[in-house]
Amino acid sequence: MIKSAFNEGPRLTFNLKVREHAYGGVFLLAVLVLIGSLLYSTVSWMWDDQRLPLSKIALQGELRYVSANDVQKAFARLDHVGTFMSQDVSVLQEVAESIPWVSHASIRKQWPDTVKVFLTEHEAQAIWNGNALLNSSGELFDGDIGELEVERVKLYGPQGSNHEVLSVWRDLEPNFEGLDLSITSLVLNDRRAWQIILDNGIRLELGKESLEERIERFFTLYKNLGSSTERVSYIDLRYDTGASIGWFPEQELEQENTDD
């Protein structure tokens, strides 16, 4: 009997420890189930279309042509604007960048109901072919010419020549400023011939070749003309040397002076 009681002690202790571990495991499982249930309920609540709707727009950026109303109208064209949790910001970015004048859009969500929109506008460098706009990179972009706050040079050329024509204008314009002149129009026609119209109304016919040399020839001629430049209608420089000059009729010039 003494031997039997002695063997029973360790076995009882082992059983108690097993029960304690079992109770602990059940408690831990219950806690995990409770936490999981709470997380599921929270996530389900947050992803519910009736919860946390994105209802406010915070517009940022140095903007002259785009307003918060423009952004709101653009987002309103979406079939559905989701919640803080469900809405994909890349979709909003794509929509924002479709707005006229917008070059780049950065979108992020701010808890609990706000869309923060940072916009960068195109810088209008020139009017292209009379009905489009070029940005500072020579790329066409969507914008209303009538909204321009200041005059822009008018550039013309065949399809796909916008980068070339803008580059030539940038190279030439500083040279004319030395004579207190400015290019108002630069044309590259379908035959690849160049034409310039200056802000004083003089038209320069430059042809296809030796553009820089013909421009230099014009500068020399213009300086020699002195006050007679007021009577010049056009200067044709499409010669190996020299130039031909078209003059306004005296009567027409007098009429213009009277009108002034």
From TrEMBL:
Coiled-coil intervals, chain numbering: none
Residue ranges constituting the POTRA domain according to the UniProt record: 52-122
GO biological process, one term: cell septum assembly
PROSITE patterns given in the database record: POTRA (PS51779)
Chief place of localization: membrane
Pfam family membership, one: POTRA_1
InterPro entries found in the cross-reference section: Cell_div_FtsQ/DivIB_C (IPR005548), FtsQ (IPR026579), FtsQ_C_sf (IPR045335), POTRA (IPR034746), POTRA_FtsQ_type (IPR013685)
Keyword set, alphabetical order: Cell cycle, Cell division, Cell inner membrane, Cell membrane, Membrane, Transmembrane, Transmembrane helix
Compartments (UniProt record): Cell inner membrane; Membrane
Superkingdom, natural source: Bacteria
GO CC annotations, alphabetized: cell division site; plasma membrane
Transmembrane segments: 21-47
Membrane topology: Single-pass type II membrane protein
Classification via HAMAP family: FtsQ_subfam (MF_00911)
Described function: Essential cell division protein. May link together the upstream cell division proteins, which are predominantly cytoplasmic, with the downstream cell division proteins, which are predominantly periplasmic. May control correct divisome assembly.
Family to which the UniProt record says this protein belongs: Belongs to the FtsQ/DivIB family. FtsQ subfamily.
Quaternary structure and partners: Part of a complex composed of FtsB, FtsL and FtsQ.
Name of the protein in question: Cell division protein FtsQ
